[in-house]
């Protein structure tokens, strides 16, 4: 091969090498630019993701704090409700007790079921020297009244005269005096309460009824509905 042709061939090869090298440099530059560009977008997205994640974490922490506060408030409300319910029950019981005391003191009109006990003098016995042995006395009346109150009677009256917490009964021969008013026999003692309970208490073996019968007192007991007792006027 001649020198001239060899030089020409080298120039062609060199030109091809330069072209390929330039293409490779341009391609490499573009790849680097794309990678850099891609790297910048990824960084922004990452920063946005981090920011959103931090905001989400802060919001979750805030929600947890609010939920804890809500739970505490709800517990306080439940405690208040329990206290109010307890107070309401106390006030209800006080009101109920006050009404019972008014009934016991004779301050209000009362109506209800109950019993009527009639105590009559025993039959005349000519062989009995002491007439008082078969008459109804105040202690006989007291036994009946006390048993009625013990058995839950809320109001008691003798011959229609209502008793109070400070009533007194005095025996005066064939009559008894209740709070200054005289009543002859027979003595009707009415009481408002559970009829079955009151009757059972009076009829118990060896109880009030048996004791009075042993004293020659005529004892009768009736359960009654709709007993009415008016309030006592002028009593303190």
Give the secondary structure arrangement, pairings included:
Elements: H1 3-105, E1 110-120, H2 138-150, E2 155-158, E3 161-162, E4 169-172, E5 175-178, E6 181-184, E7 187-192, H3 195-203, H4 208-214, E8 218-229
Antiparallel strand pairs: 1-7, 1-8, 2-3, 2-7, 4-5, 5-6
Textual characterization of the structure:
The chain is 56% helix and 20% strand. The protein has 236 residues and is α+β, with helices and mostly antiparallel strands. The protein is rod-shaped. A five-stranded antiparallel beta sheet has the order 3-2-7-1-8. A three-stranded antiparallel beta sheet has the order 4-5-6, with no helix packed on it. The N terminus is likely disordered. The protein has two domains: 79 residues; 124 residues, Protein of unknown function DUF881 (Alpha-Beta Plaits, 2-Layer Sandwich), CATH 3.30.70.1880.
Question: Gist?
Answer:
The protein is an alpha+beta fold. The protein has helices spanning 3-105, 138-150, 195-203, 208-214; strands spanning 110-120, 155-158, 161-162, 169-172, 175-178, 181-184, 187-192, 218-229. The chain folds into 2 domains: 1-79; 106-229, 2-Layer Sandwich (Alpha-Beta Plaits).
DSSP E strands, number: 8
| CATH topology term of the largest domain | Alpha-Beta Plaits
Helix content: 55-70%
Q: Specify Rg, calculated over alpha carbons.
A: 54 Å
Compute the number of helices.
Answer: 4
How many separate domains? 2
* The CATH class of the largest domain: Alpha Beta
CATH architecture of the largest domain: 2-Layer Sandwich
Q: What's the arrangement of strands in the largest beta sheet?
A: 3-2-7-1-8
Mean pLDDT: 78
Termini separation comes to: 153 Å
Spell the H/E element sequence. HEHEEEEEEHHE
Unreliable runs: 2-8
Full CATH superfamily name of the largest domain: Protein of unknown function DUF881
Pfam families: DUF881
Family: Belongs to the UPF0749 family.
Keywords: Coiled coil, Membrane, Transmembrane, Transmembrane helix
Transmembrane segments: 12-31
């Amino acid at each position: 091969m001649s020198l001239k042709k060899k030089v020409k061939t080298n120039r062609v090869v060199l030109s091809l090498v330069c072209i390929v090298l330039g293409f490779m440099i341009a391609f490499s530059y573009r790849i680097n630019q794309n990678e850099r560009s891609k790297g910048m977008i990824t960084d922004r997205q990452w920063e946005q993701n981090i920011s959103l994640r931090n905001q989400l974490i802060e919001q979750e922490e805030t929600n947890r704090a609010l939920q804890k506060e809500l739970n505490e408030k709800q517990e306080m409300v439940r405690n208040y409700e329990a206290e109010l319910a307890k107070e309401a029950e106390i006030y209800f019981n006080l009101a109920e007790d006050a009404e019972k005391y008014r009934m016991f003191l004779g301050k209000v009109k009362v109506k209800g079921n109950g019993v009527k006990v009639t105590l009559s003098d025993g039959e005349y016995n000519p062989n009995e020297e002491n007439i008082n042995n078969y008459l109804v006395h105040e202690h006989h009346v007291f036994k009946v009244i006390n048993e009625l109150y013990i058995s839950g009677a809320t109001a008691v009256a003798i011959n229609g005269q209502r008793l109070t917490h400070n009533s007194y009964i005095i025996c005066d021969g064939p009559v008894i005096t209740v709070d200054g008013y005289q009543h002859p026999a027979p003595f009707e003692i009415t009481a408002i309460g559970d009829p079955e309970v009151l009757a059972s208490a009076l009829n118990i073996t060896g109880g009030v009824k048996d004791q009075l019968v042993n004293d020659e007192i005529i004892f009768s007991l009736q359960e009654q509905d709709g007993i009415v007792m008016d309030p006592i006027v002028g009593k303190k």
